[in-house]
Amino acid sequence: MLTLLIAIGSFVGYLVAYHTYGRWLARKIFNLDAEADVPSQQLRDDIDYVPTRKEVIFGHHFTSIAGTGPIVGPAIAVFWGWLPALLWVLFGSIFIGAVHDFGALVISLRNRGQTVGEVAGRLISPRARILFLLVLFLALTVVLAVFGLVIASIFAIYPESVLPTWASLPLAVAIGVWVYRRGGGLLLPSLVALGIIYGCVWLGAYYLPIDMQQIFGIPTTGPFPNAVVLWTFVLLAYCFIASVLPVWVLLQPRDYINSHQLVVALVLLAAGLIVAGATGKANLETSTPAVATTIPADAPPILPFLFITIACGACSGFHCLVSSGTTSKQIACETDAQYVAYGSMLLEGGLAVMVILACCAGVGMGQFDRGSFSPGQGYAYTPTIDAETGQPVAGLAAWSARYNPASATGWRDFKLRQMVGAFVDGGANFLSTIGIPIKLGVGLIAVLVACFAATTLDSATRLNRYVVQELASTLHIKPLTNKYAATGLAVVLAGALAMMPANPTLGPGSGGLILWPLFGATNQLLAGLALMVTVFYLWRRSKPILFALVPMLLMLAMPLAAMLYQMFAPGSGWLARGDYLLFSFGVAICGLQVWMVIEGLILWPRVRGVVEDGLPPLPQVATATSGPNC
Questions:
Q1: Is 526 helix (H, G, I), strand (E, B) or coil?
Q2: Does residue 407 sit in helix, strand or coil?
Q3: Per the omega criterion (within 30 degrees of 0), is the bond before 223 cis?
Q4: How confident is the model at residue 505 (pLDDT cuts 50, 70, 90)?
Q5: CB-based contacts of 619: which residues, under 8 Å, 6+ apart?
Q6: Beta-bridge partners for 331
Q7: SS3 of 563, please?
Q8: Local confidence band at 410 (pLDDT 50, 70, 90 cut-offs)
Q9: Strands (DSSP E) along 270-413, which ranges?
Q10: What is the pLDDT of residue 365?
Q11: Reported pTM
Q12: Which of 16, 422, 457, 613, CA to CA, is 20 to 30 A from 68?
């Protein structure tokens, strides 16, 4: 029953937090105003600035921020035990992550949709703006590399997920044209699209798995080429195209229909979790240690690494880029901000809780082996049998097969695909309790992961394009102010980073788990800097700041400590191992962060109650639009 009690208690806690703490932030701290003018109306161009119904923008925002962060992070972190991961997700998402996302969105809404980096230039100093933009650029490059590898790995491991994931693209374009060019409604096409996607899940599981390895005859061993590398290149090419199109053509409708698919998948997963917990099939107490006592000798310490391993499920700097980069340009009414930003972060925390339970109690329900594919029958799944006892592997033995150091020679031998696979297999076990066959359950959960990651991937590309253009404009690099050139630079650099090998024998595309700590540390340092912008915004207006100041200090200190550990740890640090690319990223990011904090400390005593200079007036043509659409 512990599994069920944790699930129910977590979601009740999130509902209470939304209607208490979230409401206090909206009404007492940020004073949201339904009559306030918003960027989507002020600068409407129907390309980036598009007034959007809150239900649609919630779908875009949630799927963009979620990605694989709340899946991969918890799936890795539970090797320390399920309790530390659960506590960080619950308290982090309510008191840190949701505050971070909400603050970034409101500040951007009140600054014509500018990113937090742009706003930092007026709240703190012009130098802070450039420093922040450079941090954003480095962080987004890492995000693109890591999430591209995650999706490519999912496609390579679970070829049944390929068809439904790509099928969402033409459906999104059709819905975008129908709604924004023909003035059609959303309900019917959304239901049709949902039906087609789930039809494709069934086709992929039973008839049409798209296995790049087999189609092109790629060797299963050898450093290059491999399916992960090829899928990464395909995904980055798609990101280039998606980034330069108007948001209503692909990005917004794709996120909207994906949000329906993802919500249905999450409801099914929650139903399976409830049944598995109520019937005792999923037993957290016997499957996983609450706090692990045996971990790989070369694994990083739980403090501070728990706080960077789980990012998106608790707090993520990437979210401030979505809030201020795309969402703020589409919010139609200022009072929608609590629903979109605070609500989305709590829902993401709920997803992370389910991932923790799936990777622990779900994996403990039993381990299975996948056999060959047969058209009409799908993949053959059989329970893994213990060679000594002759019984199916379950409970702690099933969990240990994935997370115990006996299954690997050290931390560096754990694979990103192994961690993501823990969630897919554990989630499929949950779904099996409500009558969904394992082979179809695996397809559903794999598509859930791939679609989440895809929404983040193309949103991150668009965001990095904005950042490159802003930097190019500031530094007078005229060629990179062009959106195609800026997008090309973002994609090429991300591809180069993604191809970094874990070691020379494994070859390109194998370094996903090595990149994840870099993503986590960079991401969380960005969160600390975004919270710093929120603190300055409130400090200048003589508002209470303690609720944001404490999270800011935590999100500056923990990631910095983790980054320094990764760089200089004797024997295992990036410098000692000769990982000079990662070491260079670490030096640059730490240096930029320290510099920006110094800028803030110099200014801090002089600006309490002193509101920053306002933006210049808009041209009359830009203000001659309809008013707030609440």
A1: helix
A2: helix
A3: no
A4: low
A5: none
A6: 52
A7: helix
A8: low
A9: 368-374, 378-383
A10: 93
A11: 0.88
A12: 16
